[in-house]
Write a structure and sequence with these properties.
Layout lengths: L5 H15 L6 E6 L2 E5 L4 E6 L3 E5 L12 H10 L3 E7 L5 E9 L5 E11 L2 E8 L4 E4 L25 H4 L3 H9 L3 E4 L4 E2 L9 E4 L2 H49 L3 H13 L10 E6 L4 E6 L6 H45 L3 H11 L17 E5 L2 E5 L3 H11 L5 E5 L7 E3 L6 H13 L7 E7 L3 E3 L8 E3 L3 E5 L1
Antiparallel strand pairs: 1-2, 2-3, 3-4, 5-6, 6-7, 7-8, 8-9, 10-11, 10-12, 13-14, 15-16, 16-18, 17-18, 17-19, 19-22, 20-21
Length: 484
């Protein structure tokens, strides 16, 4: 959240004035319907009206989306190549006026006012001539005021109370009105003075510096969350689907558990075939398995031998079905484990490029938000007490860590029985504290609760599951370390 009242805005405007006064507008660039830049040689006066409305000097370049609003086209026509003569606050409110001058074709000086209004929910940008007649409005239909072309621009009534300043002591109020320091508190509140002395904070050299950090940080978080949302939706749909299948399989197995009974009846009937006559619906025979007389139902339309064959066929069919169900259950559990692991990787991921790797792995196409990185991300690596430790942050990296970086006699670690990262320790004769450090790394990057068991074994004991998803492995000859 940004808290800049009239006082804070006056300090921000002072910073902007000192950097763009007397500069020539080289370019005007829009990005979407709520943001645009006035570009000078080395400065970028950036306006944004999204979650929070603000104007500041942006350090980093913004990608042009080639979205041209009528308002931006009008700015280009009228004020491109003009000179900034002043930047000021109007009516002691959060209204910023960038006063401009430009030579027309007859070498006459034309004056313009580019007015930015930040009045609570009423945010607008208005271009006027030197007499304050409106030439263009960015948002012509969002205010109760008349902002039509040709109308006289009038400064709205001042309704901006400096509520934080109002509650200060007289001494502190005088100080805060005359000087400032740009602050972002740990709760992500950006303001222009230390209103909350006991809260943790970071102080910046200027409000523009603080605003650049604030928006870069919140923008990256917002982009990450936006990027994660469809990936998690895809993953969780698959988790839900697989859980439904797993709920049904045991019931089907239960229904087929007595398939051996059909073979038993077929064996008994075959031993007593001489008793079976054409057209019989049942026959009484001796069950030599249970040492008792039983009745076996028959199909009167089948011959005695065909009745035996029918029972054997039913046995074979149910046996095959049970085996297939058990195999399917293992496959579904492995697939569910895989998607639970993908969910973990997405939730833990802190870089767009990492999310793109997961998208590629899952076959999800999403070009709305891109990292623009063409080079492959480096595998996570650190050196602990002289031992190189590598860790995967998704399935693609797990595969690389285990089967490309890891050699036969390197140590391989994984949190026990839960989805998580593959970890490799390079080298032999690994000390117990190094092993414990790597185990904690594996545990902290798993679905565990930061405490629990971690399996470890030589990499040569790790093998891919045949037909399994990427980085799905099985391992033998392992030991377990408990992390408390």
């Amino acid at each position: 959240m940004i808290y800049l009242d009239t006082v804070g805005f006056s300090f921000l405007v002072s910073e902007i004035r000192s950097r763009i006064k007397d500069l020539k507008i080289r370019k005007i660039q829009s990005y979407d319907s709520n943001s645009f830049s006035i570009l000078f040689n080395k400065e970028n006066l950036y306006f944004e009206n999204k979650k929070e409305a603000i104007i500041y000097l942006k350090d980093k370049k913004v990608e042009n989306t080639n979205k041209e609003l009528n308002f931006i086209l009008k700015l280009k026509k009228d004020i491109l190549s003009s000179i900034v003569k002043d930047v000021s606050i109007l009516s002691n409110d959060r209204i910023v006026n960038v006063k401009l001058e430009k030579l027309d074709l007859l070498n006459n000086i034309k004056e313009y006012n580019l007015i930015y209004e930040f009045l609570g929910k009423s945010v607008n940008v208005i271009l006027t001539d030197e007499k304050y007649e409106i030439l263009a409005t960015m948002y012509p239909n969002i205010s109760n005021r008349v902002l039509l072309k040709g109308a006289k621009y009038e400064v709205p009534e001042n309704n901006n109370e400096s509520r934080l300043v109002k509650n200060l002591s007289l001494e502190k109020k005088e100080k805060f009105l005359s000087s400032y320091e740009a602050i972002i508190y740990d709760n992500n509140l950006l303001t222009y003075n230390d209103f909350y002395e006991n809260k943790k904070k970071t102080v910046y050299n200027s409000l523009n510096e603080a605003l650049n950090f604030y928006f870069e940080n919140t923008s990256e978080i917002s982009q990450m969350e936006t990027k994660k949302r469809p990936i998690l939706k895809n993953i969780r749909q698959n988790i839900k689907r697989l859980n439904k299948i797993l709920e049904k399989i045991p019931k089907d197995i239960e229904e087929n558990k007595n398939y051996e009974e059909n073979k038993k009846l077929a064996d008994i009937l075959l031993a007593n075939l001489y008793k079976v006559k054409e057209g019989m619906e049942k026959v009484q025979v001796f069950d030599y398995y249970e040492n008792k007389e039983i009745n076996i139902s028959l199909d009167k339309n089948l011959s005695p031998s065909k009745n035996v064959e029918k029972l054997y066929n039913k046995y074979s069919k149910l046996k095959r079905k049970k085996i297939a169900l058990e195999k399917r259950e293992v496959e579904v559990k492995n697939e569910l484990y895989y998607y639970l692991e993908q969910e973990l990787f997405v939730l833990n991921e802190k870089e767009l490029v990492g999310l793109e790797e997961i998208e590629k792995e899952l076959g999800i196409k999403n070009t709305k938000i891109s990292s623009n990185k063409k080079e492959k991300r480096k595998i996570y690596h650190e050196n602990y007490q002289g031992f190189d430790i590598y860790m995967g942050r998704n399935s693609t990296e797990n595969e690389e860590v285990t089967f490309k970086i890891g050699k036969n006699n390197d140590m391989w670690l994984h949190a026990k029985d839960v989805p998580g990262s593959h970890v490799i320790i390079k080298g032999n004769n690994i000390p117990s504290d190094v092993l414990e450090y790597a185990a904690k790394l594996a545990l902290n990057n798993s679905k565990s609760d930061k405490r629990g068991d971690v399996d470890y074994t030589l990499k040569k004991n790790v093998s891919k599951i045949k037909g399994g998803k990427k980085a799905m492995v099985t391992y033998v000859n392992h030991n377990t370390i408990n992390i408390k």
